[in-house]
Structure formats: structure tokens, C-alpha cells
Amino acid sequence: MGGTTKEGKDFVPKILAFSTNNISDPGIDLAGSSHMHYPPSVMVISMPCTSGIKPGWILHAVEKGFDGVFIAADGEECAYLPDCSERASRIVKEAQDLLKQKGYEPERLKMSAICSVCAGPFTSQIKDYYETLKKLGPARKG
Amino acid sequence: MSDRRIGVYICHCGGNISDYVDVEAVRQAVEVEPGVVVAKTAMFTCSDATQQEMIEDIREQNLDGLVVASCSPKLHLFTFREVAKRAGLNPYRYTQVNVREQCSWTHTDDRAGATEKAVRLVRAGVARTALTEPLEPIVIDTVPKVLVVGAGIAGLRAAIGLADLGISVLLAEKSAAPGGWVAGFNKMYPHDRTGRLLIKQLVDKVKRRENITLFTDAELVAKSGSIGNFQVKIRVNGQKTEEISTNVGSIIVATGFDGYHPRDGEYGYGIDGVVTLPEYKEILDNAGDKMLFNGKEIKNVVYIYCVGSRQQTGENPHRYCSRYCCNAGVHAAVESAEKDPQVNQYHLFRDMRTYGKFELLYGRAREKGSVFLKFDDNEPPVVEKGPDGRLKVTVKDLLTYGEQVEIPADVVVLVTGMMPRENSALVDILKLPVGRDGFFNEIHPKLRPVETVVDGVFICGACQGPKNSAESVASALAAVTQSASILKKGFVELEPLIAVIDPKKCKLCDVCSKSCPYSAIEQEHYQGKTVARVNEAVCKGCGGCAPLCPDNAIDLKGYTDAQMESMIDAMLKEIG
């Protein structure tokens, strides 16, 4: 992860992933238990529910040096809130608006539903996102 | 500089971590973090010896925060919270950092990358811990009484189980008599005892127990309060309607299922002689020496399976398997063959699922002459009335390479599945979580199978999903155990990681209270103004209200703005 802020070939995007304690975090754990690989510049913070993520945290992460934020959402499986998906979409929209206001690309934030056994889907999605960010370059230019 | 005194322990996990992460390098990197006074590695942090060492360090070094970097919190969060507690440290000043499932095991190909990531993750754990505050579990006294909703086989058995543990039961049944579906069943597999008798025995036991009160024609109309002490209102519709209000410590929902009712024309339903399995069982139960339909002897029976189950198309399809029907179908065939050994029986199936011990029943049906033909879901059997007035079923049999078979039938039995029962009033009153299939949802399908997200509200039996009577009773007794584990102790401790509203910032716009499906947000007076307040016994700690507050007055304890931002900063700090 040496050249994290450098542009070009050596650029290693840092990704902050938000997971949830009961749904997506077990899915991400399962990727590890199955020894599936994804880049070590992906770091996970687990929450009770996707709907509790504040858009301000996402902006903070990007401003401070993460190149992308990936929300591994509860989706329809959320045990707390029947409208969790709608709430999460709203959070994503608000956070993307915040990012745009500060001159960051909305692609700095991505959300996908990850279930408690979605080890494969998580791994492949986070790898794809890593490649997307690699093309996009570092969040903080210059 | 931080004035915190935090201890950090990094686990080798016997090589599971240390084979892929340089744990000593991680230790050295975090040792110098502000607030860290102890930084150690251990072969197994969860071992008794290391737990004891942590306790000694906490006491001797007067630690006020604990971080263990090891496996997933799903495994040992509570282990180390207990360690903290035993050492006299508030357990909510503990943070578990997952450097196994989410680091060493997933970066087995990149030791340098994994080590660097581990440093970042542990730093974030230290940063979070530095901002923890001591929290006390929310303690609520419990009422030693349970409301059981539904007096079918699950509800009856649950009531008896609770009563025998010394817990009072209020058993409320919506219909005029207890017993549910099973009360209408004749002989049941494997003991040939009738459903009627089973229910009669259970009802007798209920009546003999003084601490069970059974109400029929009764329904739950209101609920308030929370786990340990709910206030419930039951409406009993007798000759005159009366309402009973009482307090209970927990609620068990055992409201069962509805049978699938085929659409007109579905596999010929509506044609004389095309019946559902429950309708056929009635014919069978009422038969004397001979099975008759419309006065005519039944000689040929065709069963069609998966009716109303495993649907792929249509509006709100029932995608699930109803579990009981293959067994019930072959059981009906065995019974029919016992009544009339000459009867011809044809079973048209998509897949036979006579799991476990029911396989023997399937074998018996075949021995007694039942013929099984497999059809393709895309080419279902066609049921018609022939010119001779007889039923004719046409099916392409996959087991004989798609040969078209025509079977004359006296009755066609549609082996119908289970459906979630329409219960929207109850769902609304109890805030029951309903799954995509329409059945009620548990918290965790394997590890917490009868608990719901509503603390103190349990589900069991077929309201949760298709189950046979044995499975329903098993889950009912699981709900008994879970209820008793709360109520026998006399109090419950709830996680204090709930939402908190800053009264200084709150402008009482009501956005949060409208957004909370659990009605956890109340009002209080604060320095001459009315503000929103979180009812700590009701809040589930999802945090869903927090991002909605236009004044950012809401934090979720354990996940506060300060904690999240300091974790993010710590993850990004340069690696020296």
C-alpha cells in the first residue's frame, strides 16, 4: 500500500467498506474464512444497520484520504427496518451530493446488498470497484 | 496526548493470523499510539492463561480501555467483554478488532499488505476505544407471565411447557375452539394416533393447570411497553364483548398458516372431482368400507404435487417449498391403499422430498402400488373432463423420456401447500417482521431461530414458515426456553448501544419519531423546551434515525460521529 496517494500505475486505491453486524459483516467474514482474496487496502467498519450511516462520515473518509467508500448493505434482509433499502438509497444520494459539492466524483461511493453468505459476490464486487477506482485515480488530486 | 490507559493484545491464533501477518510488527506500530500503555502479542488471546494475564494487566496497570485484535467479533466479543468485567473494567470500553477473517485469512497472498492493514485496523480500534464511555446495561424487571397467541398444537404445547416451569400463561385463540389444524387430522405418521386425540390430550393438560388461562374467540388488540413488561389488551368476543388488560413479560406468537386455495382452473380446480388434499382427507376419513365420491367408488386417484408451492411466476409467487406436502401426499396414499388395496394411485411430482424418516413412508406407498411420474414445471399436467364424463389427466413423464401418459381418474388430488396467514392487525400491533415470503422472520435462521427483532416477542410453529406438527412443537418449546431464560431470572439486561439525542441541538421537528417503526422516540422537557428523547427500553439500536436528523442531534452509542471519524483518521495515518 506504499504509493497510496500517487497517481498512475502504482496507485493503490484505499477503500472504506461499511458493513452490518448481522448481515453483510458475516458475509465478508466468510470471504476470509474461505480464503478468498481482495486487496488489503480495503478496510471494513461494521455497524448495526446500513440506515445508520451518516453521509458526513462518507465525505470525511474521502476528504481524509480514502479513494472510495463501499456500502455493503443489508438490502431486503434488514431485521430492523422494513424500508432499509429506501433509507440507504437516500443516504447514498445525500452523500453523493455532498461529494459533488466538494468536487469529488459520485463514483467515490458505491452501494451493493451483501447477504450473510455473500462471500463470492462481496469479493468480486470489491475487486471490480477497486479497478474502477484505479481508473478514476486518487480522490485527492495533486 | 491522550490520557487514556489502553491495553492492546494481538493474537497469533496459533498461526491463523501470525502466518500471514507480522504480529510483532503490528505490536510495535501500535505500542506508540497515544493512550496505549500495554501492547502484547499472545499465541491464543482467548486462552484462559491470556485472559488471566489481561485481567492482571487491567488491574495492575489501571487500564481504562481494552483492545483485542483477533478473530471476528461474532466469536469472541462477549468473551472479552466478560474479561473486562471480571477485571472491573466497564465491558463497553472493549473493542474487538477483526484481523483474522477480515485480514490474515483474506490476504494470505500478501504478508506486507496484510501486516500494514492490521496496523491500520488496530489503530482504528484504539481510536474507537479512546472515545468509549462506561455504559451500563439497561436493566428491566420482568413479569413472570407470557401471552401465547394462537392455541394450535404449537401454542398449546408452549403454554404447558411454560406453566410447568412456573410461569403463568395467557393463551389467546382467535377461533371458537383450541386445536388449530391438527384438531381436524385423523391418523398421523408415525404412531397412527389421531390429531383429534393429540389435541384433546393437550387441552386436558391445559385445563388441569391453574396457571394457564385459555380464552377462545379472543384476539390481541393492543400492546405497549417492552421486553419484560408489556401491557397487553385482549378482546374476547363472547355473548358480550369484554376486554382484558394485563401485563406479561414476553409474547409467543403461534398463529399458524393458511392452506393454499387453488385458483379456478388451476390443474382443473373447479371441475367436479378435482379436490385439494385436505378435501380428499375428509373423504378418506369419512369413508366406510369403500371410498366414495358423489356416491361412486373411487378406483383411480391422481395426485398432483407442489400446488401453491415452488411457484416461479405469477403475482407474488410462493417460491418456497411447503415441506409437509410430499409426506402428507404419500401418507394419504398409504391410508387409501389400506382402505382399498385395489385402488390405483398415480403421483405426478416435480421433485419428491420425503426427507428424513418420511422416506420410509414413501417406500411404503411404492410397495402398496403407488406409481410416481415426474413432470416438468414448464409442462404441467393437464386435467380435463372427458366426453364420458370421467376425469382425464395428461402428463409428460420425464422418467420415461417424456412419454405422454393419459390417466383416467375418479378424483384428482391437488397436494396444496402452506400459505402465510393474513394477520396484518397482529403484525401492526406487535411490529412483527414479515419476510418476503409473507411468513414471520426470526433474527438468525440458525442461531436465534425463535427470537424476533422485537425483544421479548418470539415466534414458533408454521407462522414462521412451513413446518409439520413435530417441527412446530420443537420450535414452540424453543420459544418456551427463550421466554423462560428471560423471565426466570427476574430481570433483563439490554444492550446500551442505543440512539441518544442531544437535547441542546434538538429542535423537535419530529422527523426521528416518525421514522422509528418501534415508536421508541418520546418527548421530554429540557430547559424550558420540549425535545425528543429515546426510550431506552424500546430503542433497538439500529441507528436509522441518526442520519435523518436535520440538526445532527442524534448519535448511536458505540458509533458516534467522534468515534467513526477518529477510526477513519486512524486507518489513514501514515505507516512509519
Structural class of chain A: alpha/beta
By CATH, the superfamily of the largest domain in chain B comes out as FAD/NAD(P)-binding domain
Largest sheet of chain B: 5 strands, parallel
* Low-pLDDT sequence parts of chain B: none
Number of continuous helical runs of chain B:
13
Low-pLDDT parts of chain A are 1-5
Q: Output the CATH class name of chain A.
A: Alpha Beta
> Architecture of the largest domain in chain B in CATH?
3-Layer(bba) Sandwich
Care to count the β-strands of chain B? 30
Oligomer: heterodimer
Rg of chain A over CA atoms, rounded to whole Å, is 15 Å
Overall number of structural domains of chain B: 4
How would you sum up this structure, described in words?
Chain A: GO terms for molecular function: iron-sulfur cluster binding; metal ion binding; oxidoreductase activity. Chain A: InterPro entries: MvhD/FlpD. Chain A: It comes from Desulfoscipio geothermicus DSM 3669. Chain A: Keywords: Iron, Iron-sulfur, Metal-binding, Oxidoreductase. Chain A: Pfam families: FlpD. The complex is a heterodimer of chains A (142) and B (576). Chain A is α/β, with parallel strands linked by helices and 142 residues long. Helices cover 39% and strands 16% of the residues of chain A. Chain A contains four helices and four strands; from the N terminus they run βαβαβαβα. In chain A, strand 1 (15-20), helix 1 (24-33) and strand 2 (42-47) form a beta-alpha-beta unit. The longest helix of chain A has 18 residues, at 84-101. Chain B is α/β, with parallel strands linked by helices. The two termini of chain B are 18 Å apart. Classes of the chains: A alpha/beta (142), B alpha/beta (576). Chains A and B meet through helix 1, strand 2, helix 2 and helix 3 of A and helix 4 and helix 13 of B.
